[in-house]
Amino acid sequence: ENTWTISILSLESMDQCRRTLEQHNWNIEAAVQDRLNEQEGVPSVFNPPPSRPLQVNTADHRVYSYIVSRPQPRGLLGWSYYLIMLPFRFTYYTLLDIFRFALRFIRPDPRGRVTDPVGDVVSFIHSFEEKYGRSHPVFYQGTYSQALNDAKRELRYLLVYLHGEDHQDTDEFCRSTLCTEEVLNFLNTRMLFWACSTSKPEGYRVSQALRENTYPFLAMIMLKDRKMTVVGRLEGLIQPEDLINQLTFIMDANQTYLMSERLEREERNQTQVLRQQQDEAYLASLRADQEKDRKKREEQEQRRQEEEKVRQSALAEERRRRTLEEEKERKSECLPPEPPADDPESVKIVFKLPNDTRVERRFLFGQSLTVIYDFLFSLKETPEKFQIVTNFPRRVLPCLPTEEQPNPPTLKEAGLSRSEVLFVQDLTDD
Predict the structure, then answer these.
(1) What backbone torsions phi and psi does residue 257 show, to the nearest 5 degrees?
(2) What pTM, to 2 d.p., does this model score?
(3) CA distances for 258 relative to 226, 252, 268, angstroms
């Protein structure tokens, strides 16, 4: 019995055959069937393929896996046909694997270079509709990465379907399962659905990431522990009701993780909103403080300018006063001497100043009225600007030169008598 088993599994060494039989508890039929399943692409339940680094997390050992195996042969006739065809099938798949392996060294697989991932998906959707009609689940029209991002952002399940065009179960699965009304309604209302053919570069890239064993292949992906994780794998020809039940089971088993992610996201959003509100309040307070500081600086600057203006005004007034005093002294020094009282040409004038004080001085008839003006100007009691007015008749004496009269008249020419009373009128306010 062992010799027959080893001859059937002649591709492997003696030690490998022994390990295979031990894995199957020395059940020859199960070992032969499992070996043939592997040759046909059906997964081995005793020796699953090792996982590779993926775009999504597949390292979780709690991933639910559901595999629909091809039916076992029944009866003497079925087993007879099975055993007769066994060498031919074994030889065919062995030669096919060798040919594919050698072809990789001659011509690299063109699917390994993804240039238009969206075009690959759209092309698959068009070919799917041409072959199976438009009654199908809503395909996600975007790349695999975009579908992952949307599922992560929206906290939804993502069902990935890899379409093996050459697999014998693909047509039946698409027509009898995927395009049925109950499956269509279930997928459209519960999850995002992304699909692509493994003959396309984008589908091949996802196939290399998810490492399917056979077709049809479905993978359920969701956000789990803050990573996009494969939480369920469905492989083989699965019936509509069974597919819905398996997907429902996977969703129910992982609903707590999705709810936890939603709660965490809401907490993060609330924390972010609270932090944003705190930042806005801080910025508002900062702007208010800055506005207060700005107004304070403006007020201080305004006070400084006003004080500087007062100081400059005081300095200007002081300079003007000193200049006026110097001018008065100069005028006083330039005045001609007062004539004696008995001089027949002398004129006695009494001046009434604006502060009601009286000043008396003698002048000569032949002196100009400018001398009278300079005398009054040299007095400290006299305002800065003034004019001299006679009482009766009232007239203003032309003491200063003008364009019409560059040389003011003399006292005699002005019609003054030997004794006069003149009034000094203040013009400073004017």
Answers:
(1) -65, -40
(2) 0.52
(3) 10, 10, 15
Q: What is 1-48's CATH number?
A: 1.10.8.10
Structure tokens at 209: 């990431």
Half-sphere exposure of 91 (CA within 13 A, CB side): 5
Instruction: Mention every residue, 6+ apart, whose C-beta is less than 8 A from residue 169.
Output: 215, 216, 236, 237
The encoded tokens of residue 376 equal 């009054």
Pull the structure tokens for residue 153: 């952002």
CATH label, 346-426, candidates 3.40.1190.20, 3.40.630.30, 3.10.20.90, 3.40.190.170: 3.10.20.90
Torsion sign across C-alpha atoms 99, 110, 208, 218: negative
Core vs surface per residue 350-379: b (16+ CB within 10 A) or e: ebbbeeeeeeebbbbbebbbbbbbbbbbbb
Query: What is the Rg, in whole angstroms, of the alpha carbon atoms belonging to the chain?
Result: 58
- Please check whether residue 141 is in contact with residue 124, taking contact to mean a CB–CB distance below 8 angstroms: no
Q: Going residue by residue through the chain (430 aa), what tens digit of pLDDT does each one get?
A: 433 343 444 444 555 665 565 554 455 545 555 555 454 443 444 443 333 333 466 555 567 778 776 655 666 676 676 677 777 766 765 775 676 556 555 655 556 666 788 999 999 999 999 999 999 999 999 999 999 999 999 999 999 999 998 888 999 999 999 999 999 999 999 999 999 999 999 999 999 889 888 889 999 999 988 889 999 999 999 999 999 999 999 999 999 988 888 888 888 889 999 999 999 999 999 999 999 999 999 999 999 999 999 999 999 989 988 888 888 888 888 889 999 988 889 999 999 998 889 999 999 999 999 999 999 999 888 888 899 999 888 899 999 888 888 889 999 998 888 899 999 999 886 5
Kindly give, in sequence order, each residue whose CB lies less than 8 Å from that of residue 72, ignoring residues fewer than 6 positions away.
33
